[in-house]
Design goal:
Helix content is 24%, strand content 32%. By secondary structure, the protein is an alpha+beta fold.
Amino acid sequence: MSDELVLFGKNMDDYNAKEIIDKILNEFMKKSGRYGYGILLGKQPNGYYVVCVNIDVNNDCKDKVKNKLQEILIKHHIIYHIETTITGGYHIFVILDRVTETLKKTKEIVSSKKCIKYENGKQLPGKIELLGADKRCLISVYNGIINDEEPFFVYPLIVNQAEDFEKAIIEFKNTFTIEQ
């Protein structure tokens, strides 16, 4: 199985919605009401990167994680956008000028047996992971679908320095404990 992400017959590295807008709209109209929207994380056509901290936790630990991470992001002057996911977790979107080698290697930020998630009726360890730094991936955007809030991409882009974001993620990894 290939690790490449393909949509409408195009590899995501070559994806250009303007070139295939007719295919996209045709597919949407054939199955109206079945689609939401999302974003392609990773390197964007303008050279910036969109990454997402996915807080995939379903118990009350998720708010401790979110609050501590927000505190650290603010301390490091990181501009971000947060949304609640359909499962009750959180997506924290950040725009970066580039990604560092450390960020590319950071997939799982925290995993804990105290922070749990439920998947197919099973209780599993919750995860806090960084998406879009190592490779491009699609992710659903829930604001505007499950609530009346505007999705983050309607706001002007504010680009953060990758080194500052890296410091924030490292600080979070090194200081966050479930007991907080």
